[in-house]
Amino acid sequence: MDRSATILSDAPDPLPFKLEDGSGVAVGEGMAAPAGYDPTVGADTQIADFSAFATAGQGYRLVVGERKSLPFAVGHDIYGKLRVDALSWYYPQRSGIEIKGDIAGEAYARPPGHVQGSPNQGDTKVTCLTGKVAAKLYGKDWICDYTLDVSGGWYDAGDQGKYVVNGGIAVAQLLGTFERGLVYGDGASPVLSDSLSRIPENGNGIP
Length: 207
Fold this sequence. Notes:
Layout: E1 4-8, E2 16-20, E3 26-31, E4 33-38, E5 43-49, E6 57-64, E7 67-68, E8 72-74, H1 80-88, H2 101-104, H3 132-138, H4 164-184
Antiparallel strand pairs: 1-5, 2-3, 2-6, 4-5, 6-7, 6-8
């Protein structure tokens, strides 16, 4: 498995580096390789390759001269927490329900939005956008004789807007994740469990 780090440096010669564990003890060392200008960071770089180090653990730091990296983990499942965090983000983005702080974190706790009551009438009977606003946006008024129940779903961002295309993409991403786990995970993929994300429904038997 490749384990490497990018060092910002315009030094023409290879730089020595050390790998320290959480207690500051050097557990590996090597020489970085000049890699030239990296346009993604706008600076000259060197690459420190420590792939030979294979002891799993937390709190490792790469040391180059007087500079130390932020602590990082070495292991085969270092993205496991990221996967849970990414899936769990669907919960605080939900529309129409209370978001609980003990699940999403107190910073994201809030009462339900877009329910029946002032200042809006909720999302159960939504009609076309009509009148002057529609005419200004689209060049003509829209007329329709129906309403739609568009309650639930996820907010697109911080503006509490919900969009058919973006909601469809979200559904496709979740179904695609489940399908990959089902087809390629030999029945043992964590995505098939009912506890991979932080949601109120954990433990209900449904992924």
